[in-house]
């Protein structure tokens, strides 16, 4: 494989994307509605159940517990039911807006909807689990939070959230009708010659934050002997691995970016690439953080750290950015492969 003859011009990742039809917007709105509806339905069901228990609950119920599991905060049943339900609803609705306004890719929609459903059902599960054990008690001062509550509240909602997310429709095919700009970087390949470019990207601040957080949560579980808390560092290891280590591949099929766990992943077919270019990304400024990110306008970014990146302008007014070493070569090969699909 030959390298691009000239180093391409470095562009800004904030350059506006040209106006195109955006078939993803109806899909995004529908996905947001589905996520919000399931989350609100779960919260409403839990509120109805909790409300029906009011006559069996103490005047003041335990609402907060210390690390040893003993209650150290109390509230009226009405206040707790209202607060938890309202907080869960606000969080779920706010998260659904990500899918609605920024869901230009199926991956973004699926993650946003999955998180929306998980958050709503997590609050709903917490409410029912917290109150179930206090039914029939005269005083809640002796009610210790059961060790199973936290694992069930954190893991239970995934039973619904994951199937809902993965069954959302993917991106509809939308082949490019124009040519790749003549000044876009390319590699020189003979007729029939193939090329494949593979790079790994990751590390950065997120990895170190993950190590610290996992260490702290593990230490908390050991010190308090609340072994159920070990579910937290175990889950965080998976989450950080999904958001910090990625494989990037460019070949005749197009661009494929996938996490160390295989999901999340994004594939951009070569025939949907309008132009690939080299850009410099500042993680906080351009995407507001690190990991698999979305930005205003539906731009999707795989941003384990700041640095040079491939930006792919694709059909439907969409844009995808991945921070990776040797991005110039990856962009040049992708443009060449896009040329061949024309």
Care to describe what's here?
With 342 residues, the chain is an alpha+beta fold. The protein folds into two domains: 26-166; 176-341, no CATH class. 44% of the residues lie in helices and 20% in strands. It has nine helices and eleven strands. The chain has helices spanning 24-52, 77-102, 106-132, 149-155, 158-166, 205-224, 231-244, 283-287, 327-341; strands at residues 61-65, 71-75, 197-202, 245-251, 254-259, 265-269, 273-281, 291-295, 299-303, 307-314, 318-323. β5 and β6 (265-269) form a beta hairpin. α6 (205-224) packs antiparallel against α7 (231-244).
What does the main sheet amount to? 5 strands, mixed
Derived from helix and strand composition plus strand pairing, the structural class reads alpha+beta
- The domain count comes to 2
Helical content (DSSP H or I, runs of 4+): 40-55%
User: Looking across the biggest beta sheet, what order are the strands in?
Assistant: 7-10-11-9-8
Tally of alpha and pi helices: 9
Whole-number mean pLDDT: 85
User: What gap, in angstroms, lies between the N and C termini?
Assistant: 21 Å
Global morphology: elongated
- Low-confidence segments, ≥5 residues, pLDDT <50? 1-20
Task: Describe the SSE topology.
Layout: H1 24-52, E1 61-65, E2 71-75, H2 77-102, H3 106-132, H4 149-155, H5 158-166, E3 197-202, H6 205-224, H7 231-244, E4 245-251, E5 254-259, E6 265-269, E7 273-281, H8 283-287, E8 291-295, E9 299-303, E10 307-314, E11 318-323, H9 327-341
Helix pairs in contact: 1-2, 1-3, 2-3, 3-4, 3-5, 6-7
